[in-house]
Amino acid sequence: MVEKDTYKTIETSTEAILFKEKNSKFIGYAYPVLNEDEVKLHIETLKKEHHAARHWCYAYQLGTENISYRANDDGEPNNSAGMPIYGQIQSFEVTNILIVVVRYFGGIKLGVGGLISAYKTTAQLTLEASKIVKKTINVNYLISFDYKNMNTVMRIIKEKNLNITNQKLELDCQITIAVRKKEAASVFEIFNHLFEISIQEI
């Protein structure tokens, strides 16, 4: 089996998407997130913005290899909101994403089936309106070397088209590079064989 080294996510937050069902309003939002703190922040912001709403249901998924996710019904009947939203995250195969659906109750009960359908549709429309991008799963390496070996290191970085994420170039130099996962081992080997140059995963 070929190891997967790409994943799909969204580049930026999505504009609010409105879906109406029997006078209830469902407003969908999608955000790129990297951790639970960011998730909390977006939900708190939406609760302030839509303080008159009845429910703020959401689902998120974090991670590219070790996946963590959560689905929250926020007072709606069990599994009628969070899981239908999460189902769309799975069906669009995206990660590092939060989808929140804000509901304003319109006075007519939708029943569990109606709720599942409304939350699922809102999440689907929100994802369809999102800019989904493919990114690579990267391994980060720290390369340490003396200034005199700068040309050697830079030549390899250029040849291999490596992405420098951080650098400190003084008498003793340090460069951090992000390498696509499937190329990581070979890049490590190249630097590891060089005299006076050390490489370590961070």
Automatic annotation (TrEMBL):
Transmembrane segments: none annotated. Residues 22-126 form the Impact N-terminal domain. GO terms for biological process: regulation of translational initiation. GO terms for cellular component: cytoplasm. Gene3D superfamilies: Impact, N-terminal domain. Belongs to the IMPACT family. This is YigZ family protein. It comes from Mariniflexile litorale. The lineage of its organism: Bacteria, Pseudomonadati, Bacteroidota, Flavobacteriia, Flavobacteriales.
